[in-house]
Amino acid sequence: MSISKPNFQIKLAESDAELRAAQRLRYRVFVEELGGSGALIDHQNRLERDQFDPFFDHLILVDKSIIGEEIDQVVGLYRVLRQESAEKIGQFYSEDEYDLSVLKSSGRKLLELGRSCLHSDYRGGAAMFHLWSGLADYVNVHEIEVLFGVASFHGTDIGALTQPLSLLHERHLAPKDLRVRAQPDRFQRMDLIPEAQIDRVKAMLKVPSLIKAYLRLGGCVGEGAYIDHLFNTVDVCLIMDTGRMNAKNKSLYTKERNL
User: Fold this and answer.
1) How far is CA 13 from CA 17, 52, 126, in A?
2) What CA–CA distance (Å, rounded) separates 207 from 198?
3) Degrees, nearest 5: CA angle 199-204-207
């Protein structure tokens, strides 16, 4: 993709065409880049989709400077699910991987994040902060108190992830009132080596940038990982309590930051 100066617009997908554009970006990232699969993926039209799509809001980042078909203008995405929508489905998406009872029984307003991605040409720049700003507006409008969702390490080799998983468990484990737990039939321990044997620098180099960004915002992780062979990932559950974020951390992802 050839990029001139981006002309970003952040919005909720409102049409079938905008939803397809979001699914095209998901296909590029999760199928073509990461080797994911799924029963409802449309390889002919290059769309990554599933049965949850009709219930989620799709927060899309559009670059209006791109010349060509509109389906190629969506360059960033968050798929978000509010609690009332999850109740219509009967579950949150990530409940297949994690027991969310501690969150669902808290009485707090929840928002599940998923399918977060950026087109490869837009990583490392301002695009992510535009997405965060849009997400912050969404959180404020709906008075969300706790955000959560799975985030992934590429590949399913636990041995290669011993250091970063152990670091997350030892240094960033959620407090008990937020501590979701991987489902027992697929529970993968994260405390794989003693804390004294963790090389923090090397471990953090293996932590994906999105996970590191949430940790900087005050996020934490649930107990246990989940190996997703379908998507070729090892997943951890990230949780962020907006009430525990200080003003400095909030400014990192809200529109108060100069983009």
Assistant:
1) 8, 15, 21
2) 13
3) 135
CA distance linking residue 212 with residue 205, whole number of Å = 10
Judge contact between 150 and 97, C-beta under 8 A.
yes
Write phi, then psi, for 216 (nearest 5 degrees). -65, -30
State the alpha helices, DSSP H only, in the chain: 16-26, 83-89, 101-104, 127-141, 162-172, 200-205, 209-216, 247-251
- Predicted confidence (pLDDT) per residue in 183-212, tens digit: 999 999 999 999 999 999 999 999 998 899
Separation of first and last alpha carbons in the chain: 22
Q: Which tokens go with 236?
A: 């951890």
The one-letter amino acid at 149: G
To 5 degrees, how large is the angle CA 104–CA 89–CA 74? 100
Residue type, 209: S
pTM here?
A: 0.89
Structural domains of the chain ordered from first start: 8-251 (3.40.630.30)
User: 9-65, pLDDT tens digit by residue?
Assistant: 999 999 999 999 999 999 999 999 888 888 889 999 999 999 999 999 999 999 999
What are the residues facing 40 on neighbouring strands? Answer: none
Measured between alpha carbons, how far is 78 from 234 in angstroms, rounded to an integer?
Answer: 19
117 Cβ neighbours under 8 A, 6+ residues apart: 25, 26, 29, 30, 76, 77
> Of 55, 73, 52, 75, which is closest to residue 64 (Cα–Cα)?
73
